[in-house]
Amino acid sequence: MKRFKSTLSLVMIIMLMVGLMAGCSQPSVEVPAEETQPTSEGEAVEAEPVEEEPIEMVELNYYSHPDEKGERNAMILAFEEQYPNVKVNLVELPTDTSKKLTMLSTVLQAEDPSLDIFDADVIWPPIFASAGWVEPIDDYLTSEEIDAYLPGAILSNEYKGHYYGIPYRTDTGMLYYRKDLLEKYDKPVPTTWDELTETAKYIIEEEGGNMSGHAGSWKQYEGLTCNLTEFIWSYGGRVLDDDGNVALNSSEAIAAVTRMTDMINKDNITPEGVITFGSGDARAVFFAGEMVFLRDWPSGWNKSQNPENSKIVGKVGIAALPTGGEGQTSYSTLGGWQIMVSAFSEHKEEAIAFAKFRAGEYSQILMAKELSHIPSLKSLYSNPEVLEAMPFLESMYPAIIHAYPRPKSPYYAELSNILQVETQLAFIKQKTPEEAVKDATMQIKVLLGQ
Amino acid sequence: MVKTKKTPKQILQSLFYIVFFIFFVGSICFPFFWQLVNSFKTQVDLFSIPPVFFPTKWTLDNYKDVFTRQPFHLYLKNSFVISFMVTVICITVGSLASYAISRTNIKGKKLFLLCLLTITLLPPITIINPIYRLLKTMGLLNTYWGLTLANTTVQLPMTVWFLQGFFQKIPRSLEESAEIDGASVFQVFYRIIMPLVAPGIFTVSILTFIGAWNQYLFAQVLNPLKIRRTVTVGITLYQTDYTVPWGTMTAASIVITVPLIIMVLIMQKRIVSGMLEGGIKE
Amino acid sequence: MASSSMRWNMKKIKEKEKMGYIFLIPAAVLISVFVIYPVINTIYLSFFNLRIQTLTEGAKFIGIDNFKKILSDQQFKTSLGFTLKFTIIAVFLETIIGMIFALIMDRAIRFQGFIRAAVLVPWAIPTIVSGLMWQFMYSPQYGIINAIFIKLQFIKDAIPWLTDAYWATTATIIADVWKTTPYMSLLILAGLQTIPKQLNDAASIDGANKVQSFFFITLPLLKPVLTVAILFRVLATFRIYDLVAVLTNGGPANQTASLSLYTINTYFNFGNIGYGAALATMTFLISLLISFLFLNTLRSKLEGAE
């Protein structure tokens, strides 16, 4: 007993000492060179007095995505070369957009200056701007710089007359299709949803096995809203009209939702479990060669040509999304990411300089080549390097430049959630499409105070 | 004792128990075994439709990926340190409090125990904002201490309720004789009571350690920077824009869980006997 | 003399009392800083209309309006219904299965140590990890569960584990029960092993069979242990978030959105701080109500502390 007691006390004392030392001392740097001392506030740290004069180092914390293949860190290094007095720390947040939102909300609500710059989804600027969490950057952008960006992309960053961010990539929904299968059965690339459904049914019949027809990311998350709005617009419907009034309850919208639910329940061209699919899940089925059509973002392109991930290398074509019928226009949802500067950053000048670099030519070309991120700068659509990486950009340019934004509102997150839930209720047949559309309309009206 | 031959009924019973155990252990361990097998599979095997059970080709690539794509060894270190600190502090604070409640005649015991229970009633996420602000003011974000204190608070109720049961079982006469000999309250606590509840301490230590190791939300929000990140947060970062790298993630989940399982295996005798000695008795 | 030893006793008691308070200080500090303050803060916020969209305008006091809104909130009712249903079924299953496992583990058999270690495995795995694991197993394409069932011909078509509201609830319950049953069974086992063997032996000599002795001897003696274990499990399951978030994220159509999930979405995703705080307070009150159901046990435990 005595021995146990003294061992226990010894262990406890050691642990407490370790803890104290760990807590008090500066953590040693044993991670990749980019990481340095984290501090709760980005403060100036004096560098070694070996140089002629001490350079004031500025440290920025960049809350962003996980680094896939080292590209983000490469881009940061390039920036640091141009601005030797600035160090940028890449703080990875989980891919899940809502987890990101949780993290960013918490930090910004606490007005914590440890966050300088962060990546924002295309629908966030109104939300963050209305909360007073981000810095307007109009003064730092010339009108030429603003014009250099795709109109849809840069406009997403505008709120009540000011610009709050810069788009570093844009995104737009596209139709992927199996070139080889369409050729085999002598079917054209469909231009209407009905045509797509018929073609899919035919090919499923003929091919047999596990083949399915079409999928998108239809699980209850933002991806569903992206898909849904494309359908609604392609039938001629709207969610909000130009004045911001709710215009959802229309026969066009009902037709759109009906088309989606029929794909699942009537025509049976969607794979099993499509209402739990994120982009990755839908893509996986397509890449395994088990699907004819796929609605996805362009970033799926280079993965589809990689034999490690995909069984359909060389068999993939990309086209604009189908429409609701004759006389309708094809629409794709505007996606993309921007970089925004926190209103509480203590190094706004440097942060904005980094933001401009992140959304500048160098970074965009790099990401285009490595990750199939489509550029938000107009000039890059005729850039040879970019076009080599993504040849479809040339033909898809009209669709990209006309990508349509989702309803802009500070209450967007809740609005989107209403659309998601009601659509899913229609998917699982708990409501008819009419009921779903009507209920959604009513709820959104209440939300926006109309 | 005379060794009697087993009657057919007894043989049947044994058989029944054996079958039950296989089912029991099998269904419990199957998901874990499935993870283990998956961590050695290549991409092709992982995403084959329909799924294959054993890998057609065994590979260590996933494990390599776990440690190269992120500094997982750093996360392991952080998790270890934080879980240890939480355990030590929780046991210390918890046993002091338990002793005070079960052995001294202070007022407000009921209030205190109720407050403890309150902790378990509110989902942690709803109090994350105030805690973040608080730690930021104290400069404890992205440190070992900040997350430790937050985790300790969450583990405290279970600790106190558990240890209380152990303390109650010790006969008062031991204390009284020590007091008559002139020992102070603290001496009685430290030299007499604590060694007697050693099994209980072991049990609670393991529970606390595992609880702190598995903590996700606080770890994500309070220690977002890489340098103090824990393994539970690290595993969510393998998922990139549109892919779920099941291979890497199953491998990472094995890496996260194996230390715990080893610890459980070593300590399992102590855990159960620790609970036997009084854990949640009346 | 009597009076001086009485004075010595009084002094001792006073000293003990003082030390008792001192012993409590660390815990009390931790709790008041990290729990009491945030909880009061949350409850305070629930009386305001505060959204991040109108953050710059500040919080507006609206009394109990948020709570009135909750009572007519359809999603709240759905979430509450789901959470209650989930909690009752999950804890019930955990207890029954845990009891069976405990009874079996109580017998001295070979590999006892191994069994106990195996039993602890699910509970040692972080919820984040086990959630992902189950998600993979339930996957319509890569799910091993459907594959095995179909191979063994238990079912013909794949079960829509996560796409159907009923199956999604079932799937989540299975995942949760898998994780927590081992823990329950150990708690019960601990209780079983404190019951003197003589009682059961005496009963069988008197002619009672196994079932009778279980119900009339074992179970009543287990009651204290069982009640506390069930209480803690009920409170923990009521707060379920991690598992649901990973497996279904509340889908399909928010049918599996637990109260915590709904609260978190409201608070963080929609940025409705005031209403989110009200939902949290409501959850807190309901949990408090539930624990009152166990009041008798609580009372005796608190009294035992005297």
Number of strands of chain B: 0
DSSP helix fraction of chain B: over 70%
- CATH fold annotation of chain C: MetI-like fold
Summarize the helix and strand pattern of chain C as letters: HEEHHHHHHHHHHHH
Kindly report the CATH topology of chain B. Answer: MetI-like fold
Instruction: Determine the mean pLDDT of chain B.
Output: 79
Q: What is the CATH architecture descriptor of chain C? A: Orthogonal Bundle
Shape of chain B: flat
Number of beta-strand segments of chain C: 2
Major sheet size, sense and barrel closure of chain C: 2 strands, antiparallel
Share of residues in strands of chain B: under 5%
Keyword list:
heterotrimer; A: 450 residues; alpha+beta; D-Maltodextrin-Binding Protein, domain 2; six-stranded mixed beta sheet; three-stranded antiparallel beta sheet; 11 strands; disordered N terminus; C: 306 residues; mainly alpha; MetI-like fold; two-stranded antiparallel sheet; flat
Task: Describe the structure concisely.
The complex is a heterotrimer of chains A (450), B (282) and C (306). With 450 residues, chain A is α+β, with helices and mostly antiparallel strands. Chain A is 44% helix and 12% strand.
Question: What is the fold's blueprint, element by element?
Answer:
The complex is a heterotrimer of chains A (450), B (282) and C (306).
Chain A: H1 2-24, E1 45-46, E2 56-64, H2 71-82, E3 86-92, H3 97-109, E4 117-121, H4 125-130, H5 143-147, H6 151-155, E5 158-159, E6 162-163, E7 165-172, E8 174-178, H7 179-184, H8 193-207, H9 222-234, H10 251-265, H11 279-287, E9 293-296, H12 300-304, E10 316-319, E11 334-341, H13 348-358, H14 361-371, H15 384-389, H16 392-401, H17 412-427, H18 433-448
Parallel strand pairs in A: 2-3, 2-4
Antiparallel strand pairs in A: 1-2, 4-11, 5-6, 7-11, 8-9, 8-10
Helix pairs in contact in A: 9-10, 9-17, 17-18
Chain B: H1 8-38, H2 43-46, H3 61-69, H4 72-103, H5 109-121, H6 128-138, H7 144-169, H8 172-180, H9 185-196, H10 198-213, H11 217-222, H12 231-236, H13 246-276
Helix pairs in contact in B: 1-13, 3-13, 4-7, 4-10, 5-7, 7-10, 8-9, 10-13
Chain C: H1 2-45, E1 48-49, E2 60-61, H2 65-71, H3 74-106, H4 112-124, H5 127-138, H6 144-151, H7 165-192, H8 197-205, H9 210-238, H10 242-247, H11 259-269, H12 273-293, H13 295-304
Antiparallel strand pairs in C: 1-2
